[in-house]
Amino acid sequence: MKKLFGSPGKVSGLALRIGQCCFAAAAIGVMLSAHGFFNATAFCYLIASMGLQVVWSFGLACLDLHALRSKRSLQNPILVSLFVVGDWVTSTLSLAAACSSAGVTVLYSKDLNYCRPMNLPCSKFQIAVAFAFISWFLLAVSSIVMFRLLGAV
Amino acid sequence: MKKLFGSPGKVSGLALRIGQCCFAAAAIGVMLSAHGFFNATAFCYLIASMGLQVVWSFGLACLDLHALRSKRSLQNPILVSLFVVGDWVTSTLSLAAACSSAGVTVLYSKDLNYCRPMNLPCSKFQIAVAFAFISWFLLAVSSIVMFRLLGAV
């Protein structure tokens, strides 16, 4: 049984999950506080996708915490396969959401120069997108660790 | 030595590479033929990313063809590791490009309704994005096969 950095039932794994959850929640919070976000489909999709990531990461963080407290191993093939599929689906959706929002944000702020004249909170959009990318990056680390674990269990 | 569907040096692998290359080239062609694409950073990024994918997939298609004709095996650990890293980097960039372009296209055609009044060729943007997604999907299949091969070699 391999003990990789960030594997489930380890402190590093728990830290990764909490980080994903917090950054995704921060992205939702910042986006919701920016007025006019609902005019762009990409921003609504960002909120939905980050919501899914919060639920997924929070669930796995609870599972990690339980495993740490009861000193149980979570590394059985069925559980790890479930984690791999869930992680890959969630991280693909998160990357898609972060990129589509980034495309729209760059269009607003650089290409069309709409921020000032249309009174759009572009800096908030940028912060939300940055949080979404950080959250995706942490999830991608978890996904790669899970994929490597799947070969080891 | 595993012989998975789509592994390098097999006809299915060659077909996947040719498909990736053709759809990426088609995405570039359609996007270049749509006037006004250079106003959006996301569309320029799509062209750059699809260009990278054409080069990568074309190179690997040539390598597959060579391996098929000379009946050599391409499955040594160093080559497969190189393919895995290249495939994952290219597919992440392609997904990012396809999603950011999709975000901008949806913004133009649905959210802002700019297609008619600004005389934008939105249907061409949509076709280019669709081709980019198909190309990314084929590349994702190759990436997963390579990752599985890496565990096997």
TrEMBL record, chains A, B:
Residues 7-138 form the Casparian strip membrane protein domain. It comes from the Eukaryota. GO terms for cellular component: plasma membrane. The chain crosses the membrane at residues 12-34, 40-66, 78-107, 127-150. It is found in: Cell membrane. Its main location: membrane. Keywords: Cell membrane, Membrane, Transmembrane, Transmembrane helix. The keyword Transmembrane applies. It is a multi-pass membrane protein. The keyword Membrane applies. Coiled coil: none annotated. Homodimer and heterodimers. Belongs to the Casparian strip membrane proteins (CASP) family. This is CASP-like protein.
